[in-house]
Specification:
By secondary structure, the chain is an alpha/beta fold. It has 14 helices and six strands. Pathway: Lipid metabolism; Phospholipid metabolism; phosphatidylcholine biosynthesis; phosphatidylcholine from phosphocholine: step 1/2.
C-alpha cells in the first residue's frame, strides 16, 4: 500500500508541475505491410516527387527528405531468420528507407524453380508481418525490368551479391542489368540457414516428425504414410517414452534395481540351501537300504488285493457227517 501511495504522489507532483511522464518507446509495428497496387500503395507514391538519385546522394538523404524506395524480391518459402536478416539489411542500407518486397507466385516459382512448401498466400502473409517491410508486391516478376522499376518508383534493388542464375533462362545473373545501372545494393547471406537446409533437415529427421504428428492426431493418410510404417513408428514412439521415463528416474531406479537384485540373490541362495536339505532328508529316509522299494512293493500288493481279493475256499455237495452222540446210544 505504501509503495502504491508513493508512486501516485510522484505522478501527482509531475502533473502539477506540467511535466508528463516519459512515453514508452514502441518496439514493434501495429499492423502488417500494405499490399502493392492498393489505394494505400498509390497514395504513398503520390505523396512524393520522384527523381533519380545516386547511391551517394541517397546516403546523404534527398533534399526534400523523401523516403528512398528500396526493393527486395524472392520466394520466401518457409520464412526464416535468413530472410528476416536480409530484409533488415535492406531496410537499413540507406537512411529513411521505404522497403518494398516482391514475392513470386506459385505458378512462376514452379515453372522456373520447383514446388514450394508454403502456398503463395502463406508466403505473402509471412513477409507482410516482418517488421522491416513497408509494402509487399504479390506475383512479382522473376527479373526486374526498367518498366517495373518505373511503375513502382524503385530507387535501388537489394539482394546478396552472389550471381543468381535460373535453369532454362539464358542469364548468368538476373540482377546483371540492375548492377550495371548502379541501382544495386548488396546484402550478406546468413550462413547455415536457407529453405533448402530446412527441407534437408526435415528429410533427415523424417521419422521423428511423422511420429510427432501421429501423436498429435494426424492420420497416416494425411501424411501419405503406409499402415506398416505407421505401426512401426507408433511402436518406436512407445519405446522411446518408456526410455524417457526410465532416464528421468535413473538414480532412484538404479538404487531400487540394486536392492531387488540383492534380495533376489539372497532368496535364491536360501532356496538352494533348503533344496539341498530336502534332498538330503529324502535320501536319508528312502536311501539304498530298500525302504522305498519295500514300501512301493507293499503298496502295490495292497492295491492289487483291494482291486482283486483272493477266492473263497470250495464247499462239498454232500452234507457234512453228523457227529455221534454217546448219550443217545446209552439210553438205547
Amino acid at each position: 500500500m505504501s509503495v502504491k501511495r508513493k508512486r501516485s504522489s510522484l505522478n501527482e507532483t509531475e502533473a502539477s508541475e506540467g511535466e508528463l511522464p516519459a512515453k514508452m518507446p514502441c518496439t514493434s509495428c501495429l499492423k502488417p505491410a500494405i499490399i502493392g497496387g492498393t489505394q494505400e500503395s498509390i497514395k504513398e507514391k503520390e505523396r512524393w516527387n520522384f527523381y533519380p538519385v545516386t547511391y551517394e546522394q541517397a546516403q546523404n538523404g534527398p533534399h526534400d527528405s523523401r523516403p528512398i524506395r528500396v526493393y527486395a524480391d524472392g520466394i520466401f518459402d518457409l520464412f526464416h531468420a535468413g530472410h528476416a536478416r536480409a530484409l533488415m539489411q535492406a531496410k537499413n542500407c540507406l537512411p529513411n528507407v521505404y522497403l518494398i518486397v516482391g514475392v513470386c507466385s506459385d505458378e512462376l516459382t514452379r515453372r522456373l524453380k520447383g514446388n514450394t512448401v508454403l502456398s503463395e498466400w502463406e508466403r505473402y502473409e509471412a513477409v507482410r508481418h516482418c517488421r522491416y517491410v513497408d509494402e509487399v508486391i504479390c506475383d512479382a516478376p522473376w527479373v526486374v525490368t526498367p518498366e517495373y522499376i518505373e511503375e513502382h518508383k524503385i530507387d535501388f534493388v537489394a539482394h546478396d551479391d552472389i550471381p543468381y542464375n535460373t535453369p532454362g533462362m539464358q542469364m548468368n545473373d538476373v540482377y546483371k542489368d540492375i548492377k550495371a545501372a548502379g541501382k544495386f545494393v548488396a546484402t550478406k547471406r546468413t550462413e547455415g540457414i536457407s529453405t533448402s537446409d530446412i527441407i534437408a533437415r526435415l528429410v533427415r529427421d523424417y521419422d521423428m516428425y511423422v511420429r510427432r504428428n501421429l501423436s498429435r492426431g494426424y492420420t497416416a493418410k494425411e501424411m501419405n504414410v503406409s499402415f506398416i510404417k505407421e505401426t512401426s513408428l507408433n511402436f518406436q514412439d512407445r519405446v522411446d517414452k518408456v526410455k524417457k521415463k526410465v532416464n528421468r528416474v535413473e538414480t532412484k531406479s538404479k538404487e531400487f534395481v540394486q536392492k531387488v537384485e540383492d534380495k533376489g540373490r539372497e532368496l535364491i541362495q536360501r532356496w538352494e540351501e533348503k533344496s539341498r536339505e530336502m534332498i538330503g532328508n529324502f535320501l536319508d529316509l528312502f536311501g539304498s537300504d530298500g525302504t522305498l522299494k519295500r514300501m512301493f512293493v507293499d503298496g502295490t500288493d495292497r492295491l492289487r488285493n483291494a482291486i482283486s481279493p483272493p477266492a473263497s475256499p470250495t464247499c462239498s455237495s454232500s452234507p457234512p457227517p453228523l457227529e455221534h452222540d454217546d448219550s443217545d446210544s446209552d439210553e438205547a
